[in-house]
Structure formats: C-alpha cells, structure tokens
Amino acid sequence: MATKRKPIHTPSSGASASSRPQMNFRQGVNDTTARSEAKGTRPTATPTSIKEVLTMMVLHVCKKIIFFDTGLKVALYLGSLFLVSLIGDFLPYPKTYLARTDNLFNVYFVKLGWAWTMLFTFPYLAMTSVTLCCGDNQRLLRNHLPRLGIATVFWFVWTKLFNIIESSYGRCSVRGFDSKTPCLKAGHFWNGFDISGHAFILIYSSLILMEEARPIISWESIKDLLRNEEHNRASNDTTQTSNPLKGLKEEDLKALKYFYTRFTPTIRLLFVGMTMLQLLWDVMLVGTMLYHHRMVEKVLSGIIAVVTWFVTYRAWYPVPTVLPDPVGKGMFNYQTVKPEISGLRRRASLLQPGTSSSAAGGAGGSSGSSSSKDIPKFMGMPLYAARQPYNSSGPGGATSPLESSPGGQQGPAFVSSNQHLYGSRGGTGAGLSSSSSSYSNPDFNHPSYARYRSRFERFES
C-alpha cells in the first residue's frame, strides 16, 4: 500500500529574510559575541611551528647541560682537581694539544676568560631582569646588575692576590734576581707557590654561568600567563587567582609583554652561547688538571672559587633585606612549583583487608550502614562491591566467610548457602522464600540487582 507524501512547502522568492525560520538558538547574537560572553573558557595557544619545536629541543638539551646538579658538580670539580692532579704529579700524562700553553683555546679564551663570561652574561642578565622588572630600569641597576660587579671585584682581587703570593714567596732559579719580572725577562725560571689562576677562573666562571642562566627555567610559561591574564582582564573574570600576573598594573603588564616579545629570541641565543662557553670551560679545566700547576695549587684555587660562589649566591643574595636580589627575582614569580595534586588517587578497594571499613568492623563497632557510606557510587549505584562485616562467631566477630573458616582459623573457606559476598540473607532455614528474604547489604536489595538475586537463590536452592 503506497503512502502519500506530504508536499514540501518552500518559501516564495518574494518572502523576506525575516519571515524565514531562524536556526540559531540565540537570535540576534553573532558568533563572536557569543564566544566573548562564554564564561569559564581560556584562549588557546597559537599553533607551534617547526622552527619553534626545533628551538625548544635545542634549549632542552642546553638546560640539561648547564643545569647539571650544582652540588654534584662542585664535588666533581674538587674531587677531580685532587685526584687527577695528584696522579699527574707522580705519573705525567701523555702530551696532547691541550698541554701546549700557546694552544688556541688557552690564548684566545682562557686568558680572556672573564671577558668572555661577561660578554654573554651581561646582556643576558640585563634583558631577563628588565623583562621581569616590567621595564623598571632603576630596579635593574639597583637589584640585579650589582651581582656582576661583585663577581668582577672578587675575580680581580683573587687573581691579584695570587700574583702577589707567588712574587713574594718565591725565588729565581739563578741567584742575583730578587723579583719575578727581572728573573723571567732574563730567561730564567721563578720558583714560587703559584696558585692556579686558570683553575680559579674556569670554575668560578662556570658557577657564575650556571647561576645567572636560571631565569630561562619556565621562561616559556610567561607567554601563557600573559595570554590568560589579558583574557581575564578583557572579560572581567575575577575568579582566577592563581595567575602571578594578576597583581600587575596595566602599564606593567604592557611593558612585560613588550620586553618579553622583543627580547626572548636574543635571550635564547645568549643562553645557547652561555652553555657552549660553560662546556669549553670544563674542557679547559681538564687540560689544566692534566698538565699545569701542582695539585696543592689547583685544589686551593678551586676551594677559593667554590667558597666565593657559595658566599655570594647561596648565602648573601637570598637574604631578602640585603641587596642585590637573587637571580630571577622580579615583580612577579613565574617559577613557582606546582602543588602536588591530592585526592586523585583511588582508595584501596574495600574488598581488600586492612581498609578503613574492615578495620572499623574489626574493632567491633562498625555496622553495615557505616561501611556502605564509604562505597563510591555513580548515579546512586556502587562502583564496586564492598565487603560487609560478617558475624561468624558472635556479636564481637567481624570476619568475612571468604577469609576465615567456620572453625575460626584464618584461611579460605567455602561460602555457605545463606552467606555470600553481598552479605547474609536474613532469616534461618532452607525454606525461606525469596519474597521474604532480605540481605544485610542494603545495596544488594536494590531493584536493579533482582536478576542477580534470583540467580543466587536458584543456586542456593
């Protein structure tokens, strides 16, 4: 039998657009306005290009190199200075290119080591600090640049002191020369306690590079913080309180965005250069250990370098009431440690022994209702079955039939006809009808378990 189709009425060509049915749920609101009125949303990050991915990979490798554990690195410095140098004093190592005092790295890098260190560290510190201070140049000059000035003063004082000690407590290999300079000009050898200036400058410069490079840690997160804070202020969303940029003024936020966008590429390039320079200092330090100075002279210079670094960067700068500020301190803190997420770990199953409900039942006071409250539920139904306290020996007993035998001995036992995992069925006698039966577990009396109850009752019968 053929069915008649209803004719489809189409609007005439002369009908106005307003008479046509509107498919939007909210009429008169365009898509842009609807998105701007949405609450609880966050702007998404811009797509990452291949160049950005490669840059992040290079930065990640550099961070692994330069941010090696500082305590372990200091121990390696001092330990290798002692052990490697001690072996070299008694068993000279085979000569290599690093043994020559006129090698390329020694002439053009080590002898100008502090200049190379400042060449990378000074602009890096200036750019990162002015960004974190939101363009406050006074704070940059007062709170951050003095760190490099203090380091330069220590470098100058210690190296000059090393030369004074060598000149004052030494003698020429040929009599008739009382000072170092005339002895060396005459082509003779000056015997003195020559504290290794090379070992000092290499270790001290490496530690300075490691400390001053720390602002790059979590530097990329500033971009996300800026995007989210701008969205919060544009939408007047005051519910988000975890953004560290929330307390900045509008002009400070604009300055932060300007300097961050402008300086970030250069900061990354300088950081890579600092990492390469730190690797070069470590290689040249190995050459100094192998071929130059005596063990005592190198170990003493290494101790002086480590103590100078520790006193300044670990004891002095972290004091909040004393200038200069520690590395990375600005008008906001972007390197906060994320709190540990708690409450996401699933509790141990109540079927397992040693849980709170079984322990409470074993104490003699927990009833089936208290343990049923601990059962996780979804839409009113338990997510997984819970063990109910079972009274096998009297009012004080709380042992499950699955865990103990009828004689009271611990161990597996068969479940009797009136006892099973979901509790014991009320009443005694094998002829108890299903209509009058009830179970100690209230969840098993739920109507949705009718199919399972019928199976158990057929099995028991």
From TrEMBL:
Biased composition (Polar residues): 10-25
Intracellular or extracellular location(s): Endoplasmic reticulum membrane
Transmembrane region(s): 74-93, 113-133, 267-287
GO MF annotation list: coenzyme A diphosphatase activity
Record's bilayer topology term: Multi-pass membrane protein
Record's GO cellular component terms: endoplasmic reticulum membrane
GO biological process, one term: phospholipid biosynthetic process
Keyword tRNA-binding recorded: no
Main localisation: endoplasmic reticulum
Keywords: Endoplasmic reticulum, Hydrolase, Lipid metabolism, Membrane, Transmembrane, Transmembrane helix
The protein's name: Inositol phospholipid synthesis protein scs3p
Annotated organism of origin: Anopheles albimanus
